[in-house]
Amino acid sequence: xxxxxxxxxxxxxxxxxxxxxxxxxxxxxxxxxxxxxxxxxxxxxxxxxxxxxxxxxxxxxxxxxxxxxxxxxxxxxxxxxxxxxxxxxxxxxxxxxxxxxxxxxxxxxxxxxxxxxxxxxxxxxxxxxxxxxxxxxxxxxxxxxxxxxxxxxxxxxxxxxxxxxxxxxxxxxxxxxxxxxxxxxxxxxxxxxxxxxxxxxxxxxxxxxxxxxxxxxxxxxxxxxxxxxxxxxxxxxxxxxxxxxxxxxxxxxxxxxxxxxxxxxxxxxxxxxxxxxxxxxxxxxxxxxxxxxxxxxxxxxxxxxxxxxxxxxxxxxxxxxxxxxxxxxxxxxxxxxxxxxxxxxxxxxxxxxxxxxxxxxxxxxxxxxxxxxxxxxxxxxxxxxxxxxxxxxxx
Amino acid sequence: xxxxxxxxxxxxxxxxxxxxxxxxxxxxxxxxxxxxxxxxxxxxxxxxxxxxxxxxxxxxxxxxxxxxxxxxxxxxxxxxxxxxxxxxxxxxxxxxxxxxxxxxxxxxxxxxxxxxxxxxxxxxxxxxxxxxxxxxxxxxxxxxxxxxxxxxxxxxxxxxxxxxxxxxxxxxxxxxxxxxxxxxxxxxxxxxxxxxxxxxxxxxxxxxxxxxxxxxxxxxxxxxxxxxxxxxxxxxxxxxxxxxxxxxxxxxxxxxxxxxxxxxxxxxxxxxxxxxxxxxxxxxxxxxxxxxxxxxxxxxxxxxxxxxxxxxxxxxxxxxxxxx
Lengths: 395, 324
Known about the structure:
Chain A folds into two domains: 7-173 and 249-294 and 364-392, P-loop containing nucleotide triphosphate hydrolases (Rossmann fold, 3-Layer(aba) Sandwich), CATH 3.40.50; 298-357. Helices cover 57% and strands 12% of the residues of chain A.
């Protein structure tokens, strides 16, 4: 049985993870979901966002803050005409700070921690690599969830090059730091001991020979040194990654896929839905965003457009004869009527395409919610609340 | 006709990168450029960098692999695969004899590529650059290499990877390889980076941010900003009050009496179009004020289908806008 409201899901789960391709309004929908939960369901609700538009960040009071959660003050909500039942918090993901926290937490001693933090490879990997964003977003989610302060956490996922990357991020991280490959790669260094790393002759092994030719030995040494330091954190890291993975599979979590009714985003959404199901992640909802209104495809709208188009001149003369302010030029009125019908038909074509694509939606979860297209980007609490109402609305 | 500043020169450089925020139509614009170039007699190599496999669907062609396949007369397409790019590089440049003998090498290199910053990026950019070099030296057929590059968030790391690697690797063949790549990428007669955007808040902000960062951090010359999906202005300034006068009162009653109950839908649709256009115009103004690159406008297409026909339509608009 398919419903169109997110309400039961928000009332029964502790984590909602939003995914979807870039540009579909994922961040806005995530923020609106959090706001709707705080307004209608109560409790402590946290929105964890990745890269909000500036005006959205401003609306949530996120401007200029780092990795810490901030409460959206009740006065701010009231000023926007909203009466909260619960508390709304918002946080922005700071990848670098989250990685540094993780290193500090798992390092056996301060020296190791700072060796890692100062390593240029570490800085490069954490700051520049998409995979590291994927992992750290899930890691941060775990951290916020386990501290128990929030009844509901709504997460916006980072834009990924490959949509499913972040689902695999915890597993991959665990493999990455603990794999046999790493052991093999750093073997000459471990044999020579950490201090002796630079004098080891590893020319005897074909791999190192090749790697040396390709990358230069200094680079390889830097890599090895970094991973040797990191290895001391291995156990903590892997245990953590496994816990994150478990939490994502837990029934307390639900995944929601956001899409617009356009070809490419929809294909990606369906791919996403397929992968979530295949990997046994709890896939709870699909949110169709920026859906054009139904009146655009109405048959009486089409009929009226035809009449207006066919009799524009005649209608214009009649309207000009009404002697209403601003309506004296019959030519201008005819022109305007022509534009109106052309515009209606243009938008009608797009709305029809949306209906068709919606009809072709394959695998659908229990909840399929729709958010109407609003003329402007939503950038204030009032606009978010409007989307939130659409998400909670029953048919 | 007034050609815009990018105009006629648009297809003269050999290597064009297209970036943009997700959802703005970066792949469509890249594919349309390929179509436009092929119709002007150019042999085009189209490179899809993000492994989504959607690019060739714009030609109604099934997905392609690492080996270029002709997807339209004059347009060949390939999908970047870093592993394949690496083995090709090893085979051709280092003349590593039999890879199979090195056993788990592929896995190890995959690991290194994940661990070491820039390795994936350098393989991608390296493959693209080598196709351009081969064609300049007459060993490959391409007049033009078009890259559907990484999205705005990642493209700097991608295009800057040769220099990033230079900073880390002091000696060896990789160091030498990056030198000619940097030269090719920073040559304004050869290379340009075009930014595709849409008149909406986030795409415009990302475009402004990217252009600033690219100027500061990147040696790849910037080409133009291509604004996709620009909505038409429904009314002239003089006609808009006429439309507003029709929205209620006696004129509206009259319209409904003559044209039926659907008049409300027609008026509402028009009102939606007017306010959408208006809110987007704000972002266009912001873009124009903040970016001093040539802007190329492509209209929003009110069409039912997708695929090759739409790619053709975008190509026609692009050619017209460029004065080609």
